[in-house]
Write a structure and sequence with these properties.
By secondary structure, the protein is an alpha/beta fold. The protein contains ten helices and nine strands. The chain folds into two domains: 1-72, no CATH class; 77-244, Rossmann fold. Helix 8 (177-191) runs parallel beside helix 9 (204-215). Residues 48-247 form the Smf/DprA SLOG domain. This is Smf/DprA SLOG domain-containing protein.
């Protein structure tokens, strides 16, 4: 059954409804197609886990349309660490960057074991992740563009094998970017204890990310606008009820 879930996830590139439709009306699998898929995964050194595996996290099982299969590279055991936060934003000034670096490092120091969770799609956030990986900290990437796409942009991630994990519902880049982003947000919200935003420039996608956390009853926090940047509306979010933070501890 696992191989069936793997193949359907690949065939429909993570489209949950199409996968379910085929599960309700099973068809004979072409063994050659399965061998080809297994060779692709082996060549790219990509692993997978299905909802039937004992290692599949409960917090993913409980979300809307839980993924039938997840592709990953890195240390899957990072999912078991309890203290996890998502850090996100769409612009980073020098002042905010210094504040984030200090705050995250202090948070790592004061927690026995913790993981920073980010979207694997944003070049900005991957650069932030690389900064903390250089400090020997643990990072989980949730990618809406497939596992391998992250490595094609930042191949140096392979140097941090035990301290990172890249997860995606998609083996390859999903052309329907909006739907894949929304799907990724529900994984971020399920995985993390809270969302911390360091900036918020007008973007519908970020409000959908915020909604995903609120729908699961998770805290939404924000660093204040320390640069008096009129385009950064993060203070509006704080006025609407987001918890203001100057550190993560």
């Amino acid at each position: 059954m696992n191989i069936f879930l793997l193949y359907l996830t690949y065939k429909y590139n993570g489209n949950w409804d199409k996968i379910l439709k085929d599960l309700n009306d099973p068809k004979t699998l072409n063994i050659d197609n399965i061998y080809k898929l297994e060779n692709i995964l082996k060549t790219k050194e990509i692993n997978y886990i299905t909802i039937l595996d004992k290692e599949y996290p409960e917090f993913f099982k409980n979300i809307f349309k839980p993924p039938f299969c997840l592709f990953y590279k890195g240390n899957l055991k990072l999912l078991n660490i309890k203290d996890k936060i998502t850090l996100s934003g769409n612009y980073l000034t020098k002042n905010t960057a210094k504040l984030i670096e200090y705050s995250v490092l202090e948070w790592f120091k004061k927690t026995n074991e913790s993981v920073l969770v980010i979207q694997g799609k944003s070049n900005l956030e991957i650069k932030i992740a690389l900064l903390f990986l250089n400090y020997n900290k643990k990072i989980i990437f949730i990618s809406s563009d497939g596992v391998d796409n992250v490595f094609s942009i930042y191949p140096e991630l392979k140097n941090y094998q035990n301290n990172f994990l890249v997860i995606s519902e998609y083996l390859t880049k999903n052309e329907n970017s909006n739907n894949s982003d929304i799907s990724t947000y529900r994984l971020l919200a399920a995985l993390s204890d809270k969302l911390i935003l360091y900036s918020l420039y007008k973007s519908k996608s970020f409000f959908k990310l915020i909604d995903a956390f609120l729908d699961l009853g998770k805290d939404v926090c924000a660093f204040p606008n320390v640069d008096n940047d009129n385009d950064n509306i993060i203070n509006n979010l704080i006025n609407d009820g987001a918890n203001v933070v100057t550190s993560l501890t």
